[in-house]
Amino acid sequence: MRIKGSCLCAEVRFEIDGDFESFYLCHCQYCRKDTGSAHASNLFSTTATLHWLAGQDSVKVYQLPSTRHMKSFCLNCGAALPNLQGQGELLVVPAGSLDDPVPIAPTAHIFVANRRDWDQILDKIPKWDGLPA
């Protein structure tokens, strides 16, 4: 499988060749902080390869000291981007960075013990197709 993605400003573009084994929605404190949201939505693969098509020089990798938590992002727009972890053995791809449809359904919510109270009721609040009228 070949799937394409990019950052928000489209300065960084990439392609993934291969399949994803899992798709986790992570509620840990680090993922909430680095996404500014209820959870991170990341795809994982031990076999797929990442190819930078443009803008690789604009990719910054941040490793949170004393943890395994890592985030890659565009230096221009700040959008989350893929990274290789575990000495290049694990490809982690933010699902929202993909331009093509996400090829698998989420596998599981993880670190749900860290889930915030307001995140527990999201299915009960109004839904709009665009901005509220």
Largest sheet descriptor = 5 strands, mixed
Percentage beta strand:
35-45%
Question: How large, in whole angstroms, is the Cα Rg?
Answer: 15 Å
**Class derived from helix and strand content:** mainly beta
Q: Average pLDDT value?
A: 94
Low-confidence stretches: none
Tally of DSSP β-strands: 11
First CA to last CA: what distance? 40 Å
Percent of residues in helical segments?
under 10%
Describe what this molecule looks like in 3D.
The protein has 1 helix and 11 strands. Helices cover 5% and strands 38% of the residues. The mean pLDDT is 94. Strand 1 and strand 2 form a beta hairpin. The strands form 3 sheets. A 5-stranded mixed β-sheet has the order 9-10-4-3-11. It has one helix spanning 29-35; strands at 2-6, 13-17, 22-26, 40-45, 49-54, 59-63, 70-74, 80-81, 83-85, 90-94, 108-110. The chain is globular, with a radius of gyration of 15 Å. By secondary structure, the protein is mostly beta strands.
Write a compact overview of the structure shown.
5% of the residues lie in helices and 38% in strands. By secondary structure, the protein is mostly beta strands.
Core attributes:
mainly beta, 1 helix, 3-stranded antiparallel beta sheet, 5-stranded mixed beta sheet, 133 residues, 5% helix
Give the SSE map:
Elements: E1 2-6, E2 13-17, E3 22-26, H1 29-35, E4 40-45, E5 49-54, E6 59-63, E7 70-74, E8 80-81, E9 83-85, E10 90-94, E11 108-110
Parallel strand pairs: 3-11
Antiparallel strand pairs: 1-2, 2-5, 3-4, 4-10, 6-7, 7-8, 9-10
